Amino acid sequence: MEAKAYLRYVRISPRKVQIVCDLIRGKDAKTAMAILMQTPKAASEPLVKLLKSACANAENNFNMDPEKLVVTQVFATPGPILKRMMPRAQGRAYRINKRTSHVTLAVAEKE
Q1: pLDDT tens, residue by residue, 74-100
Q2: Fewest CB within 10 A of the end CB: N or C in the chain?
Q3: NCBIfam families annotated for this entry (predicted)?
């Protein structure tokens, strides 16, 4: 049984989130939390909250032992792109894509 938590519409590019996701995939919850706390990336702060949420879901909804939790799945997919314009010379405008992400994190008890 897995307990999942979702983080939707976070205003950071999926490429940047995926780097941090790769660091914690397969680790136990305490180790993953320690890694996220020490990682100087913008994506680590929202992922800390997401990991806490997934652990709370596991403990409260599925009666899992919080000491035995392991991060089984974590991935980021692209969300909607906010399209903005940047004024340039001679009346031109360049498009700026402000990307968003949807992040999914699942934890399960290790045997």
Answers
A1: 999 999 999 999 999 999 999 999 999
A2: C
A3: rplV_bact
Domain ranges of the chain: 2-109
Band of pLDDT at residue 1, cut at 50, 70 and 90: confident
pLDDT of 61? 94
Q: Which helix (H) or strand (E) is 84 found in, with range?
A: strand 82-87
Half-sphere exposure of 27 (CA within 13 A, CB side): 16
Distance CA 37, CA 22 (A): 15
Integer Cα distance of 104 and 68 in angstroms: 20
Q: Letter for the amino acid at 32?
A: A
Give the rounded distance of the alpha carbon of 16 from its chain centre.
10
- The CATH topology of domain 2-109 is Ribosomal Protein L22; Chain A (3.90.470)
